[in-house]
Each structure stands twice: as C-alpha cells, then as structure tokens.
Predict the 3D structure of the following.
Amino acid sequence: MFLPQDVNISGLEGHGAIANCDHIPVSCLIDAKIPKGNCYYRNVWNFKRGDFDKLNDLLSNYNWDTIFNTNDVDYITEQWTNTFLALAKECIPYTSILVRPNDLDK
C-alpha cells in the first residue's frame, strides 16, 4: 500500500472471523491532512429583485440561430450558457463573492 508521508496509521488490529466467513475484519485510525480547495468567486443572485418580464423579453427576442448553427455541442453549450448569463445579469441583481474553502469549517 502506498501512503503519502503526512499520513499516520495507528491502532491497526484484526477482530477475528465473523460467523462462517473466511475474511477477518481489520480496523485502524488514519490521520491524514486533506488539503482544502482553492479560493474562487461565485455569483449570488437576488431573485426577489429580478425583472423577469424583461428577462423573458430578452430571451424571446434573442437570435438563437447564431448559436445553434453548428453541430459542435461543446460550442453550443458554452455559447448558450454565456448568452443566458449575460442576459440574466441585465435583469437580476447579483453580487460576486469570494469563497474561501478554509472558512467553511467555522
């Protein structure tokens, strides 16, 4: 078994066979430092203050043919997402926040 240097295993013990089983359960304690993820930004949307009539108008009047004129599903997905979010940002207030994974434990 390969273990990183910053992992400690203690209390390794077998517990004897259970019933007619030919396997023996083993237990131990593993003390490992699991790194937290990186900080990142995300948008928090205030949907209560959104102008959804305006958003519906923008979505209805957008020329979607410019996005769906190819068979490249990756391109279509990226363009559709970018377009939808751009239109939503015009109609729904939002705040960009910094998420620090280390702060989530507090």
Summary: The first strand starts at residue 7 and ends at 14. Residues 40-105 form one domain. The two ends are 34 Å apart (CA to CA).
